[in-house]
Amino acid sequence: MKVIQVQTSGPLYGSVTVQGSKNSSQALLAAACLADATVTLEGIPGSNDVRIIRQIGLDIGLTIERTPMGDMLIDPRFIHSATIDPGKSSAYRSSYYFVGALLAKFGKVTIGFPGGDDFVSRPIDQHIKGLRALGAEFTFHSDHYVVEAKELRGADVYFDTITMGATINVILAAARAKGRTRLSNAATDPEVVDTANFLNQLGAKIVGAGTDQIRIEGVPYLGGGRYAVIPDRLIAGSFLMAAGINGGSVTVANVIPEHMGSCLAQLREIGLEIETGDQSVTAHSDGRLRATRVRTGMYPAFATDLQQPLTALLTRAPGKSIVTERVFVKRFNHIHQLKRLGADVWVRKESAYIKGGVPLVGNWVHATDVRAGTCLILAGLAAEGTTRITGVEHIERGYEDAVGSFRSLGARIESTEWTAGNAEAGFVGM
Ligand SMILES: CC(=O)N[C@H]1[C@@H](OP(=O)(O)OP(=O)(O)OC[C@H]2O[C@@H](n3ccc(=O)[nH]c3=O)[C@H](O)[C@@H]2O)O[C@H](CO)[C@@H](O)[C@@H]1O
Ligand SMILES: C=C(OP(=O)(O)O)C(=O)O
Fold first, then answer.
1. Which residues lie below 8 Å from residue 272, measured CB to CB, with a gap of 6+?
2. Quick check: 107 pLDDT over 70?
3. Whether residues 149 and 58 fall in one domain
4. pLDDT digits over 225-271, tens only?
């Protein structure tokens, strides 16, 4: 069993080059299926989710190869199947993008239900609603579903709630549908804009991405091209938060500061000093933090994926903080694990109440999902003694090299293989 071991660390100093966005990469890799020529994507991270997408690609005839320069060369010309193995599709969340991306070409997609971070129920009713409006029919089975459309036709879609996944999925389907699609109440996330920019570069006609009204004029053909995925604003945010845990100064390079507005505002409120450059952000902290109240929301509000590392940071801020989760209201699995380190945190309804400044003590903890993992790494840096984190595969879904990056900043962290022998000697069941 892989375990990440974190020791009490001092202030962190240094610079980390931020990987390409996990969430955008998943959309772009699927979107490449819409092309009729080869595509090169720069900056796709080497995370577990990307490895699964490559395996799905192999199964259906979509070649995804890493070049010696680190780019992804994708050849969608020989896709021969739109039947996706349920096990693989359920091994990560956004496998549903293959529905939007393959439906126009194949007329029928068979796929497993979405997996990924299973922290709360995550409905896909808005994906279904949007794709149905374009003419798709859904049939549900025990471990997979089938989506069929003789012909996809543009339509007006008004989303009942703001969802990034459904916005992207319907854009994918509409890009090669017949006629015009208009999306209202669309998500405005940078990852939506990134997907639209990529498709437009291949010849799609999408306008309005980044606003809540998006128009897509379907085209019969998409060419190839080269495109660079946006940097991961969520991973960048968590490294900046790390500067506040024991003090220090951390620079995240290769970021788009404009994507991080609500995060940077929140960190300033807590007492970090933030400096932005063209493509970098630096957080300085003398370790003195202020308690705060924060609510998550859809972009441009404070991201739900930054809620967990922020909660770890707020355990270091003397006083009472309140973190309210508005996107996935029960996304608090990490709180139970923080308590195992001695944090004084409790959850009522959709809020976590944190009494900050209480000393943390190392223990065995489990990362239930990727951001819970980041939260526990940050908490482990402050905890007395050793914190051992299991569930490393969740962390590896999103990070190319979390351990290496934190080590480069001076964190005392390592990845170890926990064997039956040492487990008997020291493992405390969870
Ligand atoms: C792979 C990926 O990109 N994952 C991100 C994506 O997930 P994902 O795309 O799954 O999240 P959504 O933006 O769709 O979810 C936003 C809200 O809409 C609701 N909803 C969503 C779809 C739907 O059909 N019906 C519905 O009610 C969800 O329950 C949630 O309350 O955005 C989330 C919110 O920023 C992030 O936490 C995830 O990291
Ligand atoms: C929720 C997340 O991922 P996914 O949607 O891939 O499960 C996340 O990245 O925090």
1. 240, 243, 244, 283, 284, 285, 289
2. yes
3. yes
4. 999 999 999 999 999 999 999 999 999 999 999 999 999 999 999 99
Last residue of one domain, picked from the residues 228, 256, 279: 228
ipTM reported for the complex, 2 dp: 0.99
Residue nearest to atom 3 of ligand 2 (CA): 117
Pocket of ligand 2 (CB under 6 A): 22, 92-94, 116-117, 305, 370-371, 398
Closest atom of ligand 1 to CA, residue 125: 24
Give the DSSP letter string of 34-96: G-SS-EEEE-----HHHHHHHHHHHHHT-EEEE-TTS-EEEE-TT----B--HHHHTTSSGGG
| 140/238 same-domain check | no
Instruction: Provide, rounded to the nearest whole percent, the portion of the chain with pLDDT above 70.
Output: 97
Instruction: Check if 166 has its Cβ closer than 6 Å to any atom of ligand 1.
Output: yes
23 pocket-lining for ligand 1 (C-beta < 6 Å): yes
Q: Which atom belonging to ligand 1 lies closest to the Cα atom of 114?
A: 10
What is the residue range of 46's domain?
Answer: 22-228
246 and 395 together in one domain: yes
User: 256 and 172 in one domain?
Assistant: no
Query: Is the same domain home to 287 and 332?
Result: yes
Annotated binding site for UDP-N-acetyl-alpha-D-glucosamine: 93, 122-126, 305, 327
pTM: 0.96
**292-306 pLDDT per residue, tens:** 999 999 999 999 999
Based on the domain organization, do 131 and 279 belong to the same domain?
A: no
